[in-house]
# Entry
Amino acid sequence: MNRSSSSAKSGIHFLFLDDLRGLAVISVFLGHIVWEYFLLTGRSFKHPWVVPAELCVSFPVYLKSLLTGLVLYPFTLGWIGVPVFFVISGFCIHLSFKKTTVNPFTSFYIRRFFRIYPPYLFALLLFALVFPATRLAFTKLNQWAQLVTHLLLVHNYISWCIWGINGNFWSIAVEVQLYAIFPALLLVTRRWGWRKALLLTGLIELTCQVITIFHQARFGALPIPLCMSPLFYWFSWSIGAGLAQAYLDGRALTLVRRIPTSLWLILGMATADLPAHALSFTFFALFAANLLWRMLHPGRIDPEKKNVLSRHIQTAGLWSYSIYLIHHPILKSVLNAYLAAFPHLESRPLLYFVAGATSWIIIFPVSGLIYRFVETPSISVGKSVLAAWTSRQDRLSLDESCPGATHGSASRPVQPVDVADAN
# Structure
């Protein structure tokens, strides 16, 4: 495919990506409600097949448990939204990168910084310094370490820091570190091609997963520095980038062309609650990549959003980064307020779930405000910085090639690159 055709493709905005992001962030939110119930009561709904066996022992008691388990089991897989985010991120990042032809790496990191860090910093300071349920007292050294490691986005390597302040922040650190090693991925692809690059990242991710499985079986704990490192998720992110390159080249990846989408979903669900559960993240990432490829099929047209639910999901996708950053602490605070008012709620899992879901009434509009007043201005500043930097580089290049030219005659307006934003 020629460069102009590839560039034109990379500039397309896919509305269905907002749909996928919206579904992903809503699934993560709902999954956290079930997770909070497990932390409160120790009751898990991850094994619905156990309940039918219990029906043989006491029919009336366990029939209710069966129905509850069947309703809540799908939400225990809400974390599927995270591999979906990783695949979409890899896809959008590579499309954006391929659109930039001048100093692409500098442009890439300028855009990424202003897209990711200012909203993250806002949420971090909000929960570390202001929000009552999560703010740090700074009476101990480890609380200062919490803040510093989160500011530097390295908290994912320290077991007593990773879940501090806001547990969702672990994936932000991992994603930023994936951006840092993005040039290494491109270097491998230029030397050996995308097929071998994906094979390499897949072997690295599989090795990390196998080590994690054996470590947890032997010591009963996760090796946090390994299983929360970017290498653990490198393939799951890179498959999105490989998908973008395949789209630009007008071809299909073998993993998405020959293997049914449903197979990856079944494998992910089958391994999610087994000792080999670490493998499920990759299977769900391949499911997301397969689904994304089919949505990219030539001739597909984004349907007009006519009903309220579909528009809400698409808006949630547009605001998904802000929603992801703030939803968990707010959810926990709302649940604690309900429990204080209705102590018996913990014995009613379905009512507990509904109570947690009502926190969306707060989370959604607050996320919209953050998107409007933090995310959007930050992206605009990033574009301005990029335009100013590009203009300066052009003037310097012209001065070097034409030493006699004045700055006034050498300068020319440079339009900022309009790229698709990605979470």
Notes: DSSP finds 20 helices and no strands in the chain. Confidence is low (pLDDT under 50) at residues 405-420.
